[in-house]
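Give me the fold.
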Amino acid sequence: MAKKKKGNRPGIRSVGRTLAFQVLYGIQFAPKGKAVDAETAFAQNPLVLEHDSETAREFAHDLVVGVQANLDQIDTVIKDHSQHWKIERIAAIEISILRLGLYEMMMTDMPLKAVINEGIELSKTFGEGKSRGFINGILDGVAKSVASGKYDIKKSF
């Protein structure tokens, strides 16, 4: 009997993170001034509905709800670290990746380096040419701030 090759299949967390990114990205296109409920956006997203891994969907759900619940704090940190860029001018793909990454970096037990790596991978998949460097710069800057204790979070590289 031949062994099944795993190949380069992404892990459940990476798949869930990708689903969460896609939901957060979609939320960016809600009409201005209209509040978007994260639960509804998640429940109605076709990519989420079609995905066969319940574990990935649950992880993605927790990320989306967590980002939305902490959005003001996350956006403040992005503003602090995005020199010369108003948050409104950051492209929807990049802002969605940053929000997801900062939520994981600041409000979960995800290691700092892993968050940076996952953000870069999302930017490679969904972003454009300079996305990777921009995402890396912001996430790395926030990670250094976190490691130095700026946000009262106990994490290190």
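The chain has a mean pLDDT of 90.
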